[in-house]
């Protein structure tokens, strides 16, 4: 046991029903280093970090801090030891303000009252020092996921934690925010803080990490110095094979218009202005249209308007047509029946019923069909067989197969379940918002192929992605959204990440009568 390590997790074993999530894993973190933890979806990374943070108790093994054995029975013990964690699915109270979330459980009291003034000053100082701009008075439910992440990081810094765990911190961020976060992590490490960094993104590991430990199916594979390795080597350690980082696809053959959006207006929850302002576009059969843009420019509200999660603005001339049918005022179920599949941005809020089993989630939009019900009774055998087929096809891993409660699954496997369900149901239009969020390189490779196969089968695909590489690789047409409007239509073969960035920042415009019609330079 060395004084060199600030944290040592020695021979940790953690079991759940039907699965050994961590099988005799040893992980050592040096003081002041950024240590990446890499592995496929369900490899046990989040479980291991939850053990360190006191959310789970291991059956075997022990934890040492600065060479001394410590007991971490709950997150309060972890906080007392200076350990903080930003979870993959944020632990925030939606109806509380940013300030209340940051100080929750760590309030400074003066004369029997919470000293909000002192808390506000400390939060503002921290946000300026680390470039984490937030509005302390905004409610969590009204801010973007990127902003919510900043709140989680400020929660750790507010508590003066010295060991910082980031679980998939960039899964929901825009390229610009990722760049900023990488810099923040480097600054924190330079100040002597020690960082454990779970990610699937090999570029990020190569950019910021000092060392990387790889897990596979709950077992420890090895630790490498980043200076002496490559992306290809890391992906081989993780997946056990070579992974292609480029997307192979034939040129698109666009057919009939499947989705026709005219003058769509959607109100904002955050401010008095419209979040989406008179947006018109068309998506044709056999093409992938990607909406690019910096998070918070109306993409979420735009998709929610089309899918029925959000009503179109009253008194507007908004019209949404799917396969020639006006669906502007239709319910979500009616839109689904009309041929719309939707992989939502927030898989917990809109993608799954977390306390249902995996098999129940797989038929959420189809359980009323004759295949799955008779005389208003569910055919359980049919549901079970169908869900098992999807689980096998999309490699969804869980402890108890299709009987697993969705909440107990890793984020990446939850995502694979949603994607499988949406691709497999009868549809003319696939709407996918950040479909590869939280997926490992092997799963991303598979999913990209599945989306292209969907396009080649004559489906229309509307994609929203904040990953520039994904936007340029996967799309046949790129539409850039800025401040609730389409400001550019670009050909991915003719554009560069730099040019795309200028449109995303609002510095450049080129818009047509209707995106998908003839574009005219302004």
Automatic annotation (TrEMBL):
Residues 7-242, 259-508 form the ABC transporter domain. It is found in: Cell membrane. Gene3D superfamilies: P-loop containing nucleotide triphosphate hydrolases. Keywords: ATP-binding, Cell membrane, Membrane, Nucleotide-binding, Repeat, Sugar transport, Translocase, Transport. Pfam families: ABC_tran. This is Nucleoside ABC transporter ATP-binding protein. The keyword Nucleus does not apply. It is a peripheral membrane protein. InterPro entries: AAA+_ATPase (IPR003593), ABC_carbohydrate_import_ATPase (IPR050107), ABC_transporter-like_ATP-bd (IPR003439), ABC_transporter-like_CS (IPR017871), P-loop_NTPase (IPR027417). One of its GO terms (molecular function) is ATP hydrolysis activity. It comes from the Bacteria. The keyword Cell membrane applies. It comes from Treponema bryantii.
